[in-house]
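Morning. Coffee machine broken again, so started the prediction first thing and wrote up yesterday's gels while waiting. Chain of 173 residues, entered below exactly as on the submission form.
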Amino acid sequence: MTFDFDQRPDPSTTAGEREMLEGWLDHHRVTLAMKCRGLDEEQLRRASLPPSELTLLGLVRHMAEVERWWFREVSLGLDLPELYCTEKDQDGDFHFGPEDTFADAEKVWRREIELAREAVAERSLDEVSVGEHPRRKQRYNLRWVYTHMIEEYARHNGHADLLREQIDGATGS
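Came back before lunch.
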């Protein structure tokens, strides 16, 4: 199933649990995309709230890493290379060079969302992850992963709201 970034879904108010979790997660994914729309490369790279290094480009790169980590590495136990982070730079998703573009980051992020959706499409919400968190030594059911991802996007969409308002005054959505 291809994900539609052009239309933000309104999560159902009466859906079953799985549809509700997927609806809220999709809502937040599109919200982040909307916060980035209409900006040029310089604006997407701008750390608008010094001394913070937080940028809209960095948030998109970070969420690509997070999608990959929770839905494929933890849930399925896959051993995948990091997209942007390294042993030396654990925050590599927020550190980028002049050759790194938003178009490239958005493409990677959208692909990671597609792969995440495919990875868990047939899994039960009760199914416990194959992989575990390396520091916490815990496994997670898919319900927890969805809930955490909604929280992760909601928190970072709040950051995106502040960044966007600082960049061009846009608020809302």
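Residues 142-168 form the longest helix (27 residues). Going to sketch it on the whiteboard this afternoon.
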